[in-house]
Amino acid sequence: MPEIFDGLWYLVGFALYVTGAICAATVAAWLYPRRERFGKAGSSIVIALLITAIWCLAEAAIGRGTMAAGLLESVRNLAWLLVIYRLFASDGRHTSLAPIRPVVVSLAFVEFLHLAVSYLLDRVVLNVQAEAIALQFDVMIRLLVTVGALVLVHNLYAGASRQSRASLRWPASGLAAVCAFDLNLYTIAYLSGNWPAEIASLRGLSVLALVLLLGIGVSRDREGVRLRPSRAVTFQTFSLLVIGIYLVAMVAVAQWLAYVGGDFAKLMELAFLTIASVAAMLVLPSKRVRGWLKVTLAKHLFQHRYDYRSEWLRFTRTLSNHGDSASPLAERIVQSVADIAEAPAGLLLTVDEQGDLALAARWQWPEIEVPATALPLRAVSFFEREGYIADLDEVRTGEAHAEIEVPAWLRDHPRAWALVPLIHYDRLVGMVVLARPPMKRKFDWEDFDLLRVVGQQLATYLAENSSQDALAEASRFDDFNRRIAFVMHDIKNLASQLSLLARNAELHADKKEFRDDMLLTLRNSADKLNNLIARLSRYRGGQIEALTEVEAADLIHEVVGRLARNHPVMVAECQPCTVTAHAESLEQVLVHLIQNSIDASEPDSPVFVALTADGLHGRIEIVDSGCGMSPEFVRSRLFKPFVSTKSGGFGIGAFEARELVRAMRGRLEVESREGLGSRFAIRLPLAAATGLYENFASTDQKVA
């Protein structure tokens, strides 16, 4: 029987060595024209593979123990030491790490020493005891070289930069497989004092592993064949490995107790097995132990794409930058997301008053054209409900979620890459559009998790900023109220002067001096009152009493006639049009908008007013060719209270005009270009369509 098993092990070893030789030679020939993919180590790897193939053939043909086989194994080891050194040189670490070259030279010296001693021992006849000593020396030298090579391979990969690891992963894994097998082989031989022929016959497996990993490393699609086991599979495999090691250890200890236990051997063996089984049943199913194993595996067997500490510090630093040269918060929000995804540019869309998404800021992306409604309300609801981070490449290929709706301006733009929703308390407050990075890549689960958390944090920043703006606006309104209090005080003083003047007139009306002084006082008081009325007429707060039918043409002619005394104001077109409005409020809106156009125009540049019927609305247009306004100012500042381009202005007129028009069920539209002028359009419902509006309003209330 032993002879049969020896024959089987010989056949297994022969087959594995021959297979390893064929594969090593084949990969060497295939790698030769592609050797530049391993940089400076390419040629060395080809030579080392050929030497490994020759060594495998020698082991298969003549077996271990001959001088030729030992010489070829030493040459093989020297060749792979040269490969390791050349891999260090591929990224320049052989010059910056001083100990690398001495270690390689020392290991090569040990191999040459081993060859010299083996040659001398081959020339003399040894007895059994001397042969045992020679075997121990041979194994110890091989073990020393193997350990040194394994340490070099570990430092080769562990000390490499993140960019270099991609090219070093596969050759380092192959070398580690060979070194790890030889380490176990020589360790068993050294401890047992005999050569483990059964294990040695499997050395061809390590050569096959080396060749396979090198082949993967040189293939063009090595990213596609990267081994990426799931964490569940890894945890289960590791659990089985732990259980197997536990059982082997338990059996080994039990056998040792049986050999040395004496009369109570059987009792001690059974007691140990019982105690060990109870301990396993209590410890292994524990959630704490399983949780610890999962965390340990996740930390040490899986490499995260991101350094979360660095990413969070950079994210916080970008948002908290608030110096004089710092970008506005909206742009910093875009930048913080773009930095994480390595995107070169981006946009921030925020929710407007109608619930649609509109452009709020752009970061390093001036060429993209964004419509007034960047994302309609019907598309916003899906992102708000699902928190979905959209990869626009998947949208273009039809792989994205079926319910997602992306407008054409985003879908057709070649640089548009991803949509990251910003959700605060289940409410979408904004969305970041990212431009495509220079290096094309796909999102993975780690990208989605990090961007989702960052989006929630940014949504909190936006909500907090909106709250601060609201508080600041309330504070400005409070200041405005205090100013009104001073105005009222002035009116009270004027009223007191007029009351005193009336009482004195009863006594001194017949005196010329008193009449002259009275006229002067009345004129000054009237001028002050007119100024106060002009100031107060701008701040009526948008409240209207009731809507009536108003002849818009008559009102326009009246306002234009009044303002044309000081500046050219012309009625370009005036169709008969009866609208539903509040006459005084509409007059106030017209006065304000026409006066703004006058202020923005040159003294001889006319302002044109037109009235037309537009469907169910009456349309009043005020057009000037003045200085105009930038799209940014129209979008974010024109209708903000207390923001004014006029020196000493309150900045509340445009805001109040829009609120008054809205209160009359209308809409105020603005078009402006810097240097060309502005167009204000007031759309009010026609009197004939009032019934339709009331029916729609009542229907909406019933549905609500």
TrEMBL record:
Biological processes annotated in GO: phosphorelay signal transduction system
Keyword Cytoplasm part of the UniProt annotation: no
Give the SUPFAM superfamilies listed for this entry.
ATPase domain of HSP90 chaperone/DNA topoisomerase II/histidine kinase, GAF domain-like
The Histidine kinase domain is annotated at 486-688
| TM ranges | 12-32, 44-62, 68-88, 100-121, 141-160, 172-193, 199-218, 238-258
| Pfam family membership, one | GAF
- Which PROSITE patterns does the entry link to? HIS_KIN
Name the catalysed reactions: ATP + protein L-histidine = ADP + protein N-phospho-L-histidine
The answer, when asked if Ligase is one of the entry's keywords, is no
Q: Which domain of life is it from?
A: Bacteria
Matches recorded under InterPro entries: GAF, GAF-like_dom_sf, HATPase_C_sf, HATPase_dom, His_kinase_dom, Sig_transdc_His_kin-like_C, XrtA/PrsK
Q: Which keywords appear in this protein's UniProt record, sorted alphabetically?
A: ATP-binding, Kinase, Membrane, Nucleotide-binding, Phosphoprotein, Transferase, Transmembrane, Transmembrane helix, Two-component regulatory system
Q: Which GO terms describe its molecular function?
A: ATP binding; protein histidine kinase activity
Q: What is its EC number?
A: 2.7.13.3
Q: What is this protein called?
A: histidine kinase
